[in-house]
Amino acid sequence: MTDTIERNGHEKRQRGPHDTARPATATVVLSPYATGPQGTQRDSEAKLEEAVGLALAIDLDVRLAQTVPLRRLTPATLIGKGAVERIKPMMEEQGIGLVIVDDKLTPIQQRNLEKAWNVKVIDRTGLILEIFGERARTHEGRLQVELAALEYQRGRLVRSWTHLERQRGGFGFLGGPGESQIEIDRRLIGERIVKIKRDLDAVKRTRTVNRAGRRKARLPTVALVGYTNAGKSTLFNRLSGADVMAKNLLFATLDPTMRSIRLPSGRDCVISDTVGFVSDLPTHLVAAFRATLEEVIEADLIVHVRDVAHPDSEQQRADVENVLLALGAIDEGGSDRMIEALNKIDALPVDRRDILLTRASAGSERARQFPISALTGEGVDALLAAIEDRLNEQATAREISVPLSDGATLAWLYRHGDVRSRHDEGEMARLTVALDAAAAAQFERRQPR
Known about the structure:
Layout: E1 2-6, E2 26-34, H1 44-56, E3 61-70, H2 81-94, E4 98-101, H3 107-117, E5 120-123, H4 124-135, H5 139-154, H6 181-216, E6 221-226, H7 232-240, E7 257-262, E8 268-273, H8 283-288, H9 290-297, E9 301-307, H10 313-327, E10 338-343, H11 350-361, E11 369-371, H12 380-393, E12 396-403, H13 407-416, E13 418-425, E14 428-435, H14 437-446
Helix pairs in contact: 4-5, 5-6, 6-9
Organism: Enhydrobacter aerosaccus
Family: Belongs to the TRAFAC class OBG-HflX-like GTPase superfamily. HflX GTPase family.
GO molecular function: GTP binding; GTPase activity; metal ion binding; ribosome binding
């Protein structure tokens, strides 16, 4: 085993106002990786550090963190028997109560490892669900977390039930004669999943109505997406003047937050801060959060916020784009409605920062990447201008004549459209204005019949 990180519990975050006091659980983090030709692309050390960050996000006391090379997969325990035996004395010495395996464990593997080490074992999905459970603040967020947790739990009802297990048949409300506890659990979980999905459908309908209202009011929507801890909430706060939780934490934002912001021309748009993504995000987790992620799918423009100071930045980019592909938010070749905010340039070495800025300044008018520091504000004005330019590209230019005396209509056109030229002739103002479909329809309704 390699890349051992010894920790003494001092690297914990400050508790937020929503956190509840609880004794920290002594934890070991294990990050398996395949060796040889089937080795993973992700840097094993960076992957381990991310796993530790996930554990620290819920105040676990990480005593030991190790990568575990896998020359071959062991069906019973995932990691080899020798590694299982070598790790056990370390756990006993450190008083470990929890082991996190930063990979996907089958129910059998999880149970076998718990028996071998005599401690609780969870895999990457289980850890992410724990974090989501702590971060969810709204009714919608809690529903989505519960749905994901139930889908996960339903596949793990493999406790050591035998033909001698206690039967609970004949009570009617729990099940018919001969129905075992595990069957009851599966049925009850299934019923709860159905109900949650119905509730989330109602949430989705409400969001659809709200989006329709924004379109009617001619408010385009910009969605911030990105790897967790890339700085989305810091950028959101910078753009909107809001006070969304923006800390150096994985999954600091779970529930979507929306605010109206003013673009350089004076037009308004709505900006949305969404849940961060991670590598190997389970399919059922993405599906559970689809109601929230609808805001990304339906957005007029997507801003992918990237942490360019992170050593694994390119792989993080690929992870986010894979989720967006799964959602149908972008196509294989990318998307014309997505630009990248290359965040945290303030944390780059001077030479790398200068190269990035030089490359950006020499780029085309339709550049897709914009170096910024959401923390200091550097580059944010250029990003805002690019956001407005992309939104304007979705509009259709038309010639409109308005009496100079009609100040209300002129002001409306400047507020809701992109006025590209204006010539005043006599008592009329002749304008070339780009309006999207919703604004054009609203303008027609304003005109006298």
